[in-house]
Amino acid sequence: VLPFLIPVILENLQTKNRERYMALIDTGCTKCLISSQAVVKLQASQYKLSKPMKFEQVDGSLLGGHPVEYVTDPLKLEIGCHWEEICFLVVPKMREDLILGLSWLDKWQPQIWWEQGFRKMRLPIGPYTESKNGNPETQVEDSQKLKGVGEQLKI
């Protein structure tokens, strides 16, 4: 069985450096993670966590071999027409470039289905911010709202 990978673009908001990656959709991971190699390639700023976090794998070993000590400044994540600003926990020596975990899945609640042997995903179109109740809401003018009604992305 192949992993559930989707094509994404990450942009460093300070330098405007943009790179293409394959993001792993992982329901077994609680957070959104990025490899230290991708952070270097993007020249992304990062800051130290007040307390390191451990990500234990199924076999009991630590993901990346060490606790996570850093988090990125917000990066722009683009998936088709969907975009958002997101911070990633930086994992040293991670095989995947990016992991979108349960925190991301819970926030966006994408529709995921299987069709003729392929995994497919539908996401709302961005840009979005979180409303007071924690649900995503659009930031478009009222005159533009009708243009996006019913539009969704298929990957």
Strand content: 35-45%
Secondary-structure-derived class:
mainly beta
* Helical content class: 10-25%
Overall number of domains: 1
InterPro entries: Peptidase_aspartic_dom_sf (IPR021109)
Region (Disordered): 129-155
Protein name: Peptidase A2 domain-containing protein
Can you describe this structure?
- By secondary structure, the protein is mostly beta strands.
- The chain has a single domain (5-122), classed as Beta Barrel (Cathepsin D, subunit A, domain 1), CATH 2.40.70.
- It has 3 helices and 14 strands.
- A hairpin with a 2-residue loop joins strand 6 (75-79) and strand 7.
- The longest helix is centred in the N-terminal third of the chain and has 7 residues, at 36-42.
- 24% of the residues are buried.
